[in-house]
Amino acid sequence: MIIIAVLAIQIGAPPPAALGDVVWFVGKSPEDDTTTSLCVMSTSAEADRFTSLRMLAGPPQAIAANSSTVWIAPPAHGRGGGSVSLLAIRADWDPRLETWMTKPATGMDRLPAVDLGGVGRLIASPQGPIIIGEGAGDRMVAALRRGRWQRLADLPVAEPVHGAIAAGGDLIVLTGGEGHAVIWRCEIDGGGWEKTPLRLEGDLHDLLALETGVLVGSQVDGNIRAVGFLQGDTVVPWIRLDDVLPDTQLLGSATNLMLYRLRDGTPSIAFIDQATGVADPWRAVSPVSGIHAWSIVISVFIGLAVVFVLFIGRGAPPDRIPEGLAVAPLLRRVLAFGIDLAPGILVGVLVMDVTAIDVVSAAVTGPIPSTAFLLLVLAAVTAVWGILWEALGRRATPGKRAMRLITASTRGGTIGLWQILVRNVLRGAIVLAPPIAIIVVLTPAGQSLGDVAAGTIVLIHERSE
Cβ distance 309 to 302 under 8 Å? Predict the structure, then answer.
């Protein structure tokens, strides 16, 4: 019988990792070692590079992976009670751009919230994630099915949960303490828990599923990992891995079995041959270069924008500026733009589970692999925000109104809808490529790229004496 290969990892001493069609792990961002980042790498035996995909608000409570999708339980701080809303992210390799591309796994990257008193274990299954809650008594259990959380029978145990998997329609949980171990089974579609005492050498450590069966790993003599197949109430010995300390995680999927560890901020992996049980030598992996095809595209876009302004556009103020108005000072425009970024920052905080400081930092540094999607959200919201306010006939966003600014057409009169669309779409592009903003100081009337392309200019109301 083929057992669906899934893995659950609870955050402990080492940062969590999970294995599906790709390797997922959480570590420090290569671009900023103070930032927690979700990283991904190929399961190819030759793989020695990983990509930092996106920032996280902090070390997650747990992660679990199935196929190319990963579910993440965000940090518990700042949330009321034990409620959790999982992140669901999918990664696909784009050979044209030669980089990993991410997208929400279910249309939205945030799943409905569920309150189970906390996250004790997060388990992946082909139908969706399963959570075993925390608590002093029986642990609540819930599975996400068709977009809604369904409660399963409570797990009647308060002792530590060392592993949990979904395999063959059953939820299998490994619990125990010093000197004893217990396997609990429950049908995911309904039914109660069955308890089986387990005879096991050493201390409990791993529980995972392969196509060939369920594996149980235990730590023996400090630096040896004993791995065997679960059969009834016995673990049948299979392999013994030397030089494997307790901070090493055993990861498995339908086609791969590997060891993962993080030492001094550097992740290392060692693949295990499932036929022979022999482990490859440890191989340290490093982040990919920060230069990607999409980075080159953005650089070319910036260059073309500057050429357009210097040699083609050279936007100009209207022949006659209405009485009581003047060309807006640069400082006021910067402050107005900062105010109008607030809605995008708020959406980023709510949707991406990052802090406002993370969003601002990403906007300042520009797109890198771990912030690209966040900046796309910020740019889109900023563009839509400007379009809606200026299309209402007010000619000014809340940021401009606070700074006494308005947008006018260089041809005179009120700006048209097409001008509003062009200038705000290019205004949002500043978020993706901040150097474009320098165009403001290259034009005679302090016009941005969007102003030059749309034939608009930003003016200020002069104060009456």
Answer: no
